[in-house]
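chain below, 371 aa
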Amino acid sequence: MASIFTPTRLTYTRCAALALSALLATTAHAGMFDMIDNLSKKIAEGSAAAEAEVDAKFAEEMRKEMPVYSFDIPAPDQSGQYVKMKDGDTLEDVKKVGIVNFSVEFVVENEATAVGSQQSKSKVRGIPNQDTAKMQAMVEELYTKTVSDLGAMGIEIVPFETIKATKNYGDLAEVLHASPWETETKGNVDVANGGGSGGAKSKSILVAPAGISIFADNSKRFASIPGGLFGPNIPLKVVKIGYDLNREVVLLSVNMVVDFSVMQTSGRSLLNVAKIKTADIHHLQADNTYFKFQSARGSAPLLTLKKAVVSDKPLFSEAKNFKAEIESGITSTETSTTSDKSFYADTYYARSGEMLEAARQMFIAELKKAK
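prediction:
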């Protein structure tokens, strides 16, 4: 069980107060400034404690929208509730499969910013002391079982070395990353008033099986697909790999996203009051968790989580011991508030593995139905 600090930053804009502060900026008034700072800290700490209660209520609301996955029921029996399939009727044409991408994204930090008429606010939530060795072990097991299950369905699995040797895979060299790959990703934040992105961003660790590189296959998770405007067209290159293999091999890209929190902001308008709500909910993201087949012959199956797979276990203890620090600038004063929360690391890695395996089994179950 590790300790984690979760910062909240609040910035106030100074205007006429600047002139006043200039008049009072003498040694005689130093004690007054200390008193004001101490009072500001107390107010910030009280506000943080109140926000913790708001977050707790928000978590209860989100639990209703994101019901807990039934871990006591076999995953294949729940596949119809969780998985949607497109072009499933083309599965009968899939005889050979090459796994071109197999990545699990672990979101390890979420940040959201809201702007109001007199203040801006940001919140950061994170997973401390990430254990990439445990992440890697999960992914290796998922990959091995996926290859085994597809083979049991009568599908021939083309070795990754064969895919790697193709010209078009080689053309992806500039956008390939070794595993684990740490990168900034898009924040998954709900904006309450429907305006803007809420200043959302995340940091993630993407992990692939040993020997397989990672590329940004999901544009929903990246601000821009690496490679830039003049870089390789990744979806087109993947299809062209199929041409390199005489259109006999269907390429499979597997993407799964493990997240640990949900945020909601008031947006980024000066007409709003800056508000950010946070719910610590461990889950697999819907829509961004999928098995995507791609064929040079035309349509191929796409299986996607249609609702989140949600853990039933908390990852953090209750926030306590709020502490505030004040940093004054020329035009603004920033108050940073932290709280120490215990992170249940064993629960995080165990439940992450179980949720990933449940999703994998549900995808395979739906493939078997279509076969």
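The CA atoms of residues 257 and 288 lie 6 Å apart. Residues 30-65 form the longest helix (36 residues).
thats it, cya
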